[in-house]
Amino acid sequence: MTQRAKAFSISAILFVVVTSALSVVVARYTNTLIDRVERRAFGYTPDPEGTQAFLATLGDERFFAQAGADAMQNAKGIDTFLYRQMDKAHQARYGKPFVVGRQLIGDCVAWGAAHAVYCQDSVSWSLGKLPEPPRMPSTEAIYGGARVEARGKPGDGAQPYGGWNDGATGFGAAKFLREFGVVYREPVNGIDLTTYSGDRAKQWGAYGCGGKGDKGVMDGIAKQHPCKHVVSVRTWDELAAAIESGYPVTLASSQGFQSVRNRDGIAEASGTWMHQMAALAVRHKKNGSPDDCVLVLNSWSPNWISGPKWPADQPDGSFWARRSVVERMLEDAWAIGDTNGFKYRDLNHRDWLQPNDESSNILDISHDRK
Questions:
Q1: Pseudo-torsion of CA 43, 114, 52, 157, nearest 10°?
Q2: Which pTM was predicted?
Q3: Cys-Cys link to 116, which of 228, 278, 316, 350 (CB 3.0-4.6 A)?
Q4: Domain 47-363 annotated CATH 2.130.10.10
């Protein structure tokens, strides 16, 4: 080899090394930048003492293992994808696929809770328990309720009892849903709640559900749609059994994730997020998945995360999280039940079991409604 050829070879190697190192630096910088941009979109404020106090009010069925004992006993470890019911219900109600929105203030707790409620309503509709496809819940109502009414403050809107900082507890949203209920995205009491408003969320976060001067009217409307069956989820087995029977789970924690999914749709744990999201699907290693995982739906728009999805209809804006990571996220997690609580529901019947090339045990509870 000539001197010139050797020099060229060394230069080529150096170019590859430098390029690879630069791409790593750029990726890390991009992730850091995204975290900084989205930091304002967090909003979970832990309150371990408050969580325990709320649990004490739930009596003998405060945990899913108790309230959902039948679901726990009959769980088969079937891969279950509840987000498909959200999409089907959304298309039936709104005439277009479900696409996750983007929170504009630190009201993530309300978004995670709203996604869980909508998912549960969609499952109930798919099972024929609701006569019409559900509407999306109002995140502003849940946010205000979690910050004011759930804290024992008056729901009259007379004063900004909740203050003007952002954030709420996971149990606060659960408590509001249980003790009051759901306000849906539609015109209510002269207020058009059809579209999310960050400004409204800010105001209601201070004055409570219904906002300034509401005099408790919106709380009364929420009570027309009770969500009384809300219980704590503490373990992987509870989480997996809940989802398999059609009960989504909210996840409020300090665990962060990367903004890129790997080839299996998994986002690896990274950093700290004071954040609440919703768990809407489960897949098991024994069924061919690379790990036991749950699907987590975020509230930062469809485009905050990139990378492959699994399966192909995985919602944009979501990611799979590994069991070992999720088990660290159950400090303030809540399963959302239907009007009959948390009874076992065998969703694997008729044409609902839809295997594909990647797994022979995927549960899709879609069916034709006639």
A1: 70
A2: 0.86
A3: 278
A4: no
